[in-house]
Design goal:
mainly alpha
């Protein structure tokens, strides 16, 4: 894999891990409906309480969450309409794998990641760098556990 692709994907993965509890709880919107702004607010409050963030730090986390949401939407919408599963399943619809379609789909997703990653990395750095040493350690501990256990019981 080319060096810039590895670096981009690694940077994106690292930024996603910093805000892992936000993304990790995306499937657990119990009663929150489809309003991503409300969901994002609740998750920022939850993470904020776990890390004991001040107002400025919460604002930086909110910016990071918004950038991650925008990247997620760009990935889902990359290449036009639709559901990523449908796009993937369409590659196998014929007697042979649609190799040109698979290459096109990967190129579209890679372009979406590449174009959004600098903003996510900058927002993640801004947020993480604003944390004190104890808060940074809590983030590291969270990442060591694979992004688990910040949900309800903490």
């Amino acid at each position: 894999m080319k060096h810039w692709i590895k670096r981009t994907l690694f940077g994106f993965a690292g930024a996603a891990m910093v805000a892992g509890s936000i993304a990790g709880c995306a499937g657990q919107r119990h009663g929150w409906g489809g309003d991503s702004a409300e969901f994002r607010t609740k998750m920022v409050e939850r993470v904020g309480s776990k890390l004991e963030l001040d107002t400025a730090q919460k604002q930086k986390l909110t910016v990071l969450a918004e950038k991650l949401q925008a990247q997620r939407e760009a990935l889902r919408g990359a290449g036009g309409a639709g559901d990523p599963r449908s796009q993937f399943k369409a590659l196998f619809a014929g007697n042979k794998l649609d190799q040109a379609g698979a290459t096109r789909l990967i190129d579209e997703k890679t372009t979406a990641v590449r174009s959004g990653s600098p903003e996510i990395i900058a927002a993640a750095a801004d947020f993480f760098d604003s944390l004190n040493a104890a808060q940074q350690q809590k983030v590291r501990d969270f990442m060591d556990r694979g992004g688990r256990r910040w949900s309800h019981r903490g």
